[in-house]
Amino acid sequence: MRTKDTVLIALFAALIVVLSLAPPIPLPAIPVPVTLQSLGVMLTGAMLGPVRGGLACLLYLALAAIGLPVLPGGRGGLGVFFGPTGGFLIGMALGAFVTGWMARTLVRFPMQGARPLAGYAVACVAGGIGMVYLIGVPWLAAVTQMPIAKAAMAMLVFIPGDLVKVAVATWAAWRVERVWPVLRESP
After folding, report:
1. Residue 77 domain-assigned?
2. What pTM, to 2 d.p., does this model score?
3. Disulfide check for 25: which of 34, 35, 81, 167 has CB 3.0–4.6 Å away?
């Protein structure tokens, strides 16, 4: 791994930490708050690619696991991973990897027209929403002992906000890639 890769991984792990500092918004009857972490997952995967994006999320999760207060609400420690949000946290690394892999596959250069935007959007939806929910929803159902269908229905309230995050991540990744081609160089 080159020094540049290490710096980018650390930088994007720090970006996720900063996005996690935004106060979580609790929702009634759902033990999962609204946070900006998934925006960090989308940005990390779309901008760094699969390997570096996944490693940046793993670094963020390692910081949380050792007890640093990097999770929303100033939480940290291994106990958080066994709570209702643990599956979503674990799904973040997979989500960044899938987002990066799909972005690398779908986004074509030169960065002109709507095709790159569509590629980033599909990658962010599949990785930043799909993969995170794929692990998070069954985990939530198991920990709270609610039926998985009910847990999935409860998560529908997050979709509009997640789609706004997809739009922000898509636009940011597209703009940055035009002037600083990180994705084209990603391992």
Report:
1. yes
2. 0.92
3. 34
